[in-house]
Design brief:
Layout (H helix, E strand, L loop, with lengths): L1 H26 L10 H9 L11 H18 L10 H7 L5 H14 L5
Helix pairs in contact: 1-3, 1-5
């Protein structure tokens, strides 16, 4: 029972952090204007390159792959993956999106249990 309570608290905090990430990306002008084509998304999902940057811009990966996938993981109560997205964001967002990067750090911390 304690595990399910812990999972519930973590998933709630993570869900809110993902919602905040989406809002922050929109406020900072980083959220993509259009969804990638099905072909581009399929290519990104098959990519072996971290964050599928060979198929999509990093911010499109965040918006259309990472956030939806994390929401599925939460809904299905799956184990959160180990991740460190913040260092990649610092590289790929290249000096823009400071609040987005800070929010990704929050998400990294939640996934690694530092944030809950």
């Amino acid at each position: 029972m304690p595990h399910s309570i812990h999972w519930s608290a973590r998933s709630s905090v993570l869900s809110e952090a993902l919602d905040n990430l989406e809002v922050i990306m929109q406020e900072e002008g980083i959220w993509p204007d259009a969804k990638p084509t099905r072909k581009a998304l399929d290519s990104a999902l098959q990519s072996t390159v971290p964050f599928a940057v060979d198929s999509l811009p990093f911010e499109s990966w965040l918006a259309f792959i990472f956030i939806p996938k994390m929401r599925i993981i939460i809904a299905q109560k799956q184990t959160l993956p180990a991740m460190q997205i913040t260092p990649a964001a610092q590289v790929y967002l290249n000096g823009i999106g400071h609040r987005t990067i800070a929010q990704l750090q929050t998400i990294d911390d939640i996934a690694s249990e530092k944030g809950v």
